[in-house]
Amino acid sequence: MAKTLLALYDNPDTASEALSSLGHRAVEGVRVVSPAAYPVVHQTGKPGPWRLMGFLAFAGGMLGLTTAIVLEAGSAAAHPVLHVGGKPDVAWPAFGVVMFELTMLGAGLTNFVSLIVLSWLSRRKIHRKAREAVTADRVAVVVPVGGKSDNDIAAIRSDLAGAFRVEVMP
Amino acid sequence: MTPAASLPMPAIERDTLATFKTPGRRYWLALLTAAGITALGTWTFAILMKRGLGITGLDEPVMWGGLIASFVAFIGISHSGTLVSAILYFTRSPLRSSVGRSAEAMTVIAIMTAGLYPLMHMGRTWFAFWLLPYWNQRQLWPNFHSPLIWDIFAVCCYMTISILFLYMGMLPDLALLAKRVKGWRRTLYRVMSLGFSNTDAEWNLFERAYPIFAAVAIPLAVSVHSVVSWDFAMTLVPGWHSTIFAPYFVAGAIFSGLAMAIILLAFLRKGYNLHAYLREAHFEILAKLLLAMSFVMTSVYLTELFMAHYRGSPTEVSIFTFRMFGHYALVYWVIILCNCVIPLLVLFRRFRRSIGWMVFVSVAVIIGMWFERFMFVVTSLSHNYEPYGWRFYMLSAKELTLCLAGFGFFALLFMVFAKLLPSISVSETMQAQHAAAHAGDEGAHG
Predict the structure, then answer these.
(1) Overall domain count for chain B
(2) Angle at B189 between CA A111 and CA A135, to 5 degrees
(3) For residue B170, pLDDT beyond 90
């Protein structure tokens, strides 16, 4: 029995229409692979752990800040440095710049690594064939049909009618 | 659904792929010229490492000269790319899809070039790692009270974030183009795309991650040039010790960065036949921004003079008089001509709509801004508090070679970048065209 239907579109708006029809039929688990962030991408209920990104970036920023504090205050306390302009060894205003830079660096690096790792985790839920099928002029709609009756599958196929190709994937 | 939303998507991809084709004779000539200048610079750098800073014109009291001026100039050029791209992203400007990628690449390449100059200026470049904070047997740590160490951190952080910002924006394009290209380029793009597959979940992550990155990049861009300015402003040297320096440097950086962006975009448009994406209207917008920044710079120059005069400090008056009428007067008036007078051409529609004239204005601005950095680095040191210590400094031929080599290295890297990687964002252009097509439909129906 077919587990997934892969429909390929040469127009993102036709794919969008298909998703609307599937939505009316309350078909769940529909996914899209798109060459650009067209509106159709946002019609699948925003899957993926994207909500984590802000928290992770914030955590990375705090880690960067902590690193800066430890590095500056720790090294100054452990090994007193040359006195510049009579400032104390641990001079917070002077340390502010490096703290800011490392906070931003931590947030940026964490953000990038999070994107790569979470993307890797989330894309595995979509069949490789569907991901490989998408090029600049193709949008793929992936519909899970495992456990559905033949009538339901036929109805879903009719919703995907605008596709230039519909394939059945295991 | 209206058929107007049907997109000419392959055209965008085809035009981008066309930039990867075997280059023509003019490209090779330009590349060889840039490579030649870079090779000459590398040779001079090797001589500098062998013989030390004695081959430069540096001598007491002028211990910062052309190399530091070039460092500041390239940091300035790097400023606009990431900053402008991030601002255009937040303002949802249609300019971004065409201009953003090249501007970001310009930032990365300029900051890489800038980073070479402090290494040269050290003389003993092989001890550069002493600047890094690491546990060592000498129990020595960098002095975190010093603006020079802030500078190391600021430049390194900005370079890292700029590289990642450029790279992150390219991920969707690399994933798409890997399916079109062949051979080593296909392998390169597959590896570089890090498995990005353009799924809906990945787009959701991307659309959350990208603004966070842009929000990080904007304050970093402003901070890096402020921190560079504090290398000077935190000292008590006349002409440097000023609270206006940070915004002055940031404004100057945006000014020179915009000028370089115009030159590079004109090169891409002409050399890679990207007329459809880099339109004259885009250049006109950039030209107006350039003019606005020219006005800001003019006001800064006037403010500096006014403050020096009104404060009544003999040293300050002396240094600004020296700049205008002393040994370096020619430098000063070249700055005024290039940064304040020539950009006024943009006021006239005929000039700002001509890409050739805009390139001329931009080249003048780049020259003017390099001279400006040279002026404030050198004149303040050569005309310090004590008249008996005054000394005339001039670049040695080898120093001049190193300064020019930076531009050769910059051009070389940019030409390689434009041949190797997509210089226009494919996915963003498609998205922008889709949105524009729908906006057009709504307008027609409304």
Answers:
(1) 1
(2) 95
(3) yes
- B 414-433 near A (Cβ less than 8 A): 426-428, 430-431
What is the Cα–Cα distance from A90 to B97, expressed in whole angstroms?
46
What is the full DSSP assignment across B270-323? HHTT-TTTS-HHHHHHHHHHHHHHHHHHHHHHHHHHHHHHHH--HHHHHHHHHH
Chosen for mutation from A97, A116, A118, A139 (greatest number of chain B CBs closer than 10 Å) is A97
Overall number of domains in chain A: 2
Residue A156: its pLDDT value, please?
Answer: 87
| Per-residue model confidence (pLDDT) at position B88 | 86
* Cβ separation A32–B200 shorter than 8 A: yes
Contact A111 B212 (CB under 8 A): yes
The verdict on A22 and A41 lying in the same domain is yes
Q: What is the pLDDT of residues B408-430, one digit of tens each?
A: 999 999 999 999 999 888 888 88
What is the reported pLDDT for A164?
A: 87
Query: Is the predicted pLDDT of residue B289 greater than 50, yes or no?
Result: yes
Say whether the peptide bond before residue B118 is cis (omega within 30 degrees of 0): no
Shortest alpha-carbon distance between residue A147 and chain B (Å): 24
Beta carbons of B286 and B353 less than 8 angstroms apart: no
- C-beta atoms of B145 and A16 within 8 A: no
pLDDT (tens digit, 0 to 9) for every residue of chain A, 170 residues total?
Answer: 558 889 999 888 999 998 898 888 888 889 999 999 999 998 888 888 889 999 999 999 999 999 999 988 888 777 766 565 667 777 778 889 999 999 999 999 999 999 999 999 998 888 888 888 888 888 999 998 888 888 888 888 888 888 888 888 87
Q: B338 CA to chain A: closest CA distance, Å?
A: 33
A29 and A63 co-located in one domain:
no
Q: Which domain holds residue B36?
A: 18-419
| Contacts A32 to B, Cβ<8 Å | 199-200
**pLDDT tens digits, B372-410:** 999 989 999 999 888 888 889 999 999 999 999 999 999
Residues A61, A115: one domain?
Answer: yes
A137 vs B contacts (CB less than 8 Å): 9-10, 13
Q: What is the pLDDT of residue B2?
A: 35
Do A62 and A108 lie in one domain? The reply is yes
Chain B residue numbers with beta carbons less than 8 Å from the beta carbon of A72 are: 144
Give yes or no for a contact between B117 and B445, defined as CB atoms under 8 angstroms apart. no
Q: Both A84 and A105 in a single domain?
A: yes
Q: Give me the domain span that covers residue A82.
A: 52-122
- Residue B323 has, within 13 A of its CA and on its CB side, a CA count of 29
Question: Chain A partners of B139 at a C-beta cutoff of 8 Å?
Answer: 79
DSSP per residue, B216-246: HHHHHHHHHHHHHHHHHHTS--TTT--TTHH
- CATH code, A163: 3.30.70
Is B440 near chain A, with CB under 8 Å? no
